[in-house]
Amino acid sequence: MNSDRASIGAAVGRIPSGCSILTVEHAGRATGVLVSWVQQASFEPLCLSVCLKAGRPAAELIADSGKFLLNVLGDDPKPMFRHFGRGFTLEEDAFAGLEAERTPFGPLLKACIAHLGCAVTQKINAGDHDLYVASVVEGDVLEGATPYVHLRSSGLSY
To answer: What dotted CATH number matches 17-141?
Structure first.
């Protein structure tokens, strides 16, 4: 085994992840952000863990609302990558040109294959990201659709 940073980064990059769009709405403001570090965290209660880069505008709305909607991407994520990859301020319409509907947790993106309404139970600082643990309150899936799976060449950057 190697202890150099490049070797460690290459090994971490081989941990598969999906990609989702985390959406959140509070007090008339809404946004969405691409997230790739999502994992089931428990069975009872059913919880997820989601990492969000510290300082993202979505974090302010999550802090105020205590919830979010996870929109799981299917096997052709390119349109959502192009749309959400650049990021949005809270003053911008993150959903312009997309089919979306309001839910109590955040905007539901019709192009996604699964949706999970989540209530935040914990926020933990994890270096340059914040780790959210959230109970899954609602969910739905598009039957027969395949989720996108992502591998990075290095775990040292996106």
So the answer is: 2.30.110.10
88 three-state secondary structure: coil
Rg (CA), the chain: 16
In contact, 137 and 118? CB cutoff 8 Å: yes
What ranges do the domains of the chain cover? 17-141
CA distance 73 to 142: 11
Q: How far apart are CA 75 and CA 49, in angstroms?
A: 22
pLDDT tens digits, 100-130? 999 999 999 999 999 999 999 999 999 999 9
CA angle 135, 95, 152 (to 5 degrees): 65
pTM of the model: 0.95
Q: How many residues does the chain have?
A: 158
- How far apart are the C-alpha atoms of 78 and 142, rounded to whole Å? 18
